[in-house]
Amino acid sequence: MATDMRGIPFVWYFFPEFDESSGRLIIHVNHAYTDAAGMFPILTAFTEDQDFKGLAKVGAPTFWQKFVLSLIFPISILELGYDVLSLPI
Fold first, then answer.
1. CA 32 to the chain's CA centroid
2. CA separation, residue 29 to residues 1, 10, 76, 85, 87 (Å)
3. Does residue 40 contact residue 55 with C-beta atoms inside 8 Å?
4. What is the pLDDT of residues 23-78, one digit of tens each?
5. Local structure of residue 73 (DSSP, 8 states)
6. Which of 4, 21, 29, 72 has a beta carbon 3.0–4.6 Å from 10's, enabling a disulfide?
7. What's the chain's Rg over C-alpha atoms?
8. Contact 25, 18 (CB under 8 A)
9. Per-residue DSSP letters for 53-71?
10. At 84, is the secondary structure helix, strand, or coil?
């Protein structure tokens, strides 16, 4: 089992000669590593044609998304701090 720089475990299984014309790559990874929007470009980079046009486009956040995030983020930091401090010693 390998780990990335953040210590999240993942395993690569590569079968270079799966059939006559192609190979297979299987990645066993926790969903905390990346979501599908982040994983599909990585997998597309392994293909021969590397056609990134069909992948989902991720746009910049809107004003309201930034506004809501600016309200929620401080609260979530306080909640995380409380959770950590309330762990049993």
1. 6
2. 10, 4, 26, 30, 27
3. yes
4. 777 777 766 666 666 777 777 777 777 777 777 777 888 999 999 999 999 999 99
5. H
6. 29
7. 20
8. no
9. TTSPP-PPPPHHHHHHHHH
10. helix
Determine the 3-state secondary structure of 41 from DSSP: helix
Q: Are 26 and 46 in contact (CB under 8 A)?
A: no
For the chain, give the number of residues: 89
Q: What is the pTM of this model?
A: 0.39
The identity of residue 21, as a single letter, is S
Tokens coding 82: 């409380």
The DSSP output letter for 82 is: H
Closest by alpha carbon to 25, among 5, 38, 44, 7?
A: 44
